[in-house]
């Protein structure tokens, strides 16, 4: 391509990325909604769509430091779409893209839009002052509604360490099945494999045969926490898209996988088909459904604020305000109470949430033990976990800043409970 001329495909990718950012940061839409079939990425090819998603994620992980840097060159913040063009340019420049090309493309993008054409001069003037190289200064902070309880629970230093991990794209972890081919990667102490380079996972050895699946290393610990499930009748309550269903089935359990969402269960069915693993799939509301016969074990991966997965979903701090948390805490407790009643005497239940908020984890454990006097707690005893991850009550608290030098992990709380025997 001629030097300085823009590439129309890259330009449409940038335009779509800005539209995604406008949706998330302007309209409060979730990123998944903006990048879905109906959203602004629909007309892009697979690789373009992947690039647009990568760029949007990079902006969302660093809106605060980007705005601080851009603010040096503007007297006041410009309208949202103009600001999003500048933010996109900032992450491209920070990622090492050629400044001349980025500036030209972003000025062109502004000129092409009715809302932004009069801002093309500003965009040009600002971007010419942006230095190449990584974004300076402190990383993005979590919003107050989330940060405050976390500082209270673990202190400022831990929260800053979590934020540092959230600023970077997460590594890709695989859960491996014995006897299948696996790609190159770092063997983590808990048994997951961390890929050296993500790329297109479906092209990696073992994918087509269903020899592994993508699952964060922390998420992969919930099923082992249930103990040996071979031959047991196990309910995976809130199962979709099914990472834990696959683990249970691969461990030899007779699995009933239940979820309220038909769309999410479609992904679970695809995962079962690819791996050749078997589970009985049930579409139902766990608050209304009841089993015909009790279970030996139950995994309850309850709906939650998902605040432990902000590095994968950096839109969350911009579209949520914490107002859903009380309702989720109530739903979690109701699902837990129902599920405990579906266990055989002596049966086990693992309660899990991918939340950083103690009220969705440690707090739920304390109140469940108070509501169910016969309930016993099984101490976590898993290969590779560190003593500091086990809470005073005997739950497992996993934080994004654990293994920070290896890329961190998602945030989870999980605990194994046992009902009284016969
Ligand atoms: C954290 S996700 C589960 C992730 C899944 N266990 C995995 O490992 O792939 C929570 C799930 O709870 C489901 N859910 C929410 N409310 C529910 C309800 N009342 N009954 C059953 N499932 C529900 C959601 O559809 C969602 O798929």
UniProtKB/TrEMBL annotation:
Biological process annotations from GO: regulation of DNA-templated transcription; RNA methylation
Domain SAM-dependent MTase RsmB/NOP-type: 134-420
GO MF term list: RNA binding; RNA methyltransferase activity
Keyword RNA-binding included in the entry's annotation: yes
Binding site for S-adenosyl-L-methionine: 238-244, 259, 285, 301
Cited SUPFAM superfamilies: NusB-like, S-adenosyl-L-methionine-dependent methyltransferases
InterPro entries: MeTrfase_RsmB-F_NOP2_cat (IPR049560), MeTrfase_RsmB-F_NOP2_dom (IPR001678), NusB-like_sf (IPR035926), NusB_RsmB_TIM44 (IPR006027), RCMT (IPR023267), RsmB/NOL1/NOP2-like_CS (IPR018314), SAM-dependent_MTases_sf (IPR029063)
Active site: 354
Family (UniProt): Belongs to the class I-like SAM-binding methyltransferase superfamily. RsmB/NOP family.
Protein name: Methyltransferase domain-containing protein
Species the sequence originates in: Fuscibacter oryzae
């Amino acid at each position: 391509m001629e030097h300085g001329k823009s590439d129309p495909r890259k330009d449409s990718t940038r335009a779509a990325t800005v539209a995604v950012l406008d949706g998330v940061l302007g309209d409060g839409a979730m990123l998944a909604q903006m990048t879905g079939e109906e959203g602004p990425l629909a007309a892009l090819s697979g690789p373009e769509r992947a690039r647009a998603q990568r760029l949007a994620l990079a902006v969302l992980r660093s809106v605060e430091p980007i705005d601080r840097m851009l603010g040096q060159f503007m007297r006041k913040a410009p309208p949202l779409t103009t600001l999003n063009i500048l933010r996109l340019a900032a992450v491209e420049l920070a990622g090492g893209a050629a400044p001349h090309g980025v500036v030209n493309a972003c000025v062109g993008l502004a000129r092409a839009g009715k809302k932004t054409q009069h801002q093309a001069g500003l965009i040009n003037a600002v971007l010419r002052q942006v230095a190449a190289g990584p974004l300076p200064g402190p990383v993005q902070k979590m919003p107050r509604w989330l940060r405050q309880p976390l500082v209270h629970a673990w202190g400022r230093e831990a929260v800053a360490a979590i934020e540092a991990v959230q600023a970077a794209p997460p590594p890709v972890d695989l859960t491996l099945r014995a006897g299948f081919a696996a790609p190159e990667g770092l063997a983590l102490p808990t048994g997951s494999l961390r890929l050296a380079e993500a790329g297109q996972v479906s092209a990696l050895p073992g994918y087509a045969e269903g020899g592994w699946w993508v699952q964060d290393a922390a998420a992969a610990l919930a099923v082992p926490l249930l103990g040996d499930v071979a031959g047991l009748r196990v309910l995976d309550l809130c199962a979709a898209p099914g990472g834990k269903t696959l683990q249970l089935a691969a461990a030899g359990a007779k699995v009933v996988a239940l979820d309220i969402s038909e769309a999410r269960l479609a992904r679970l069915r695809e995962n079962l088909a690819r791996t050749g693993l078997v589970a009985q799939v049930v579409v139902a509301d766990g608050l209304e459904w009841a089993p015909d016969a009790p279970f030996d074990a139950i995994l309850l991966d309850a709906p939650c604020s998902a605040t432990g997965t902000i590095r994968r979903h950096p839109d969350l701090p911009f579209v949520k305000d914490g107002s859903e948390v009380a309702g989720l805490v109530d739903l979690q407790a109701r699902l837990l109470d129902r599920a405990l009643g579906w266990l055989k005497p002596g049966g086990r239940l693992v309660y899990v949430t991918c939340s950083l908020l103690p009220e969705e984890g440690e707090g739920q454990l304390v109140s469940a033990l108070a509501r169910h006097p016969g309930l016993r707690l099984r101490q976590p005893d898993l290969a590779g976990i560190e003593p500091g991850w086990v809470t005073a009550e005997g739950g497992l608290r996993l934080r994004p800043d654990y293994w920070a030098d290896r890329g961190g992990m998602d945030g989870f709380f999980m605990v194994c409970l046992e009902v009284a025997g016969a």
